[in-house]
Amino acid sequence: MKKTAREELKNKKRIVIKIGSSSLTHPETGDVNLVKIERLIRVISDLRGMGKEVVLVSSGAIAAGRQALGCQKPQTVAEKQAYAAVGQARLMMVYQKIFSEYNQTAAQVLMTKNTIVDNTSRENARNTFDQLLKLGTVPVVNENDTVSTYEIKFGDNDRLSAIVSALIGADLLVLLSDIDGLYSDDPKMNPDAEFISQVDELSDALMSMGKSTSGSDVGTGGMAAKLYAAKIAAGSGTDMVIANGDDVGVIWDILEGREVGTLFTAHRSPDFTLLDYIESVHP
């Protein structure tokens, strides 16, 4: 009997998990939620114990910097980059400390669009990821916000995580956000919006359903960014699931083949070229 696409998720070995700022921070204050991070690390450590390779794409650097500096939400690019410079170090300190408590080693990887556009840098990045995974580490990836400008930005971590998945040949990409998955319309505005459990083809009509706004004041990626990420992931041969990160235990539900979140099934395109997607990274 042929397994369903959901059941096949149990066998995924190389997994990229992206968690958004809204899933890592307290909604009341915007401060980093240490309990949520600890639970996430526990899940990832268990996945490592099962022999799976895991890459974590983590937002939260600017939020961590804002908390450390005791400042308000940054208004300018310079403020955001300064907050990120402080926050990235603070965030990695937290990841390193808690991962070590579960006998895991975290490794920091900071990227910009130029990392992928340049052929030599892209190959070096791929080799670095492969070596880090071979060494049994958990690469923690973020955009290098401290030096990124609009011209060299990925735009958001949804797309960055899809690009990383394509780069390393991941089997599965899990986007943890503040939404349950894809709906036929905005469920906050339309109570009759229907939930879409599985997407096998990203049609133009479906792509146009994405909203360019985010429901969170600490994140950057709305549904449009997530659908764009799905296009990259599916085209490169990676299954992708959008799920609510309020409870990070949803990762287990996904890997057990349960009907949670929206599954975008992979359909590797023979014409897929990562650079084509990079060049249009601001659709």
From TrEMBL:
Q: What is its EC number?
A: 2.7.2.11
The record ties this protein, via CDD domains, to:
AAK_G5K_ProB
* Major location (coarse): cytoplasm
Q: Which residues bind substrate?
A: 59, 145, 157
Give the source's domain of life in one word.
Answer: Bacteria
Is Nucleotide-binding found in the keyword set? Answer: yes
| Compartment list | Cytoplasm
Q: In which pathway does it act?
A: Amino-acid biosynthesis; L-proline biosynthesis; L-glutamate 5-semialdehyde from L-glutamate: step 1/2
Question: Sorted alphabetically, which InterPro entries does this protein's record hold?
Answer: AceGlu_kinase-like_sf (IPR036393), Asp/Glu/Uridylate_kinase (IPR001048), G5K_ProB (IPR041739), Glu/AcGlu_kinase (IPR001057), Glu_5kinase (IPR011529), Glu_5kinase/COase_Synthase (IPR005715), Glutamate_5-kinase_CS (IPR019797)
Q: Which reaction does it catalyse?
A: L-glutamate + ATP = L-glutamyl 5-phosphate + ADP
Report the residue ranges that make up the Aspartate/glutamate/uridylate kinase domain in this protein: 13-244
Q: Where does ATP bind?
A: 18, 177-178
Top-level class of the enzyme under EC nomenclature? transferase
Q: Which UniProt keywords apply?
A: Amino-acid biosynthesis, ATP-binding, Cytoplasm, Kinase, Nucleotide-binding, Oxidoreductase, Proline biosynthesis, Transferase
Molecular-function annotations in GO: glutamate 5-kinase activity; oxidoreductase activity
What is the role of this chain? Catalyzes the transfer of a phosphate group to glutamate to form L-glutamate 5-phosphate.
Question: What family does this chain come from, according to its entry?
Answer: Belongs to the glutamate 5-kinase family.
Per its record, how is this protein called by name? Answer: Glutamate 5-kinase
Name the lineage: Bacteria, Bacillati, Bacillota, Clostridia, Lachnospirales
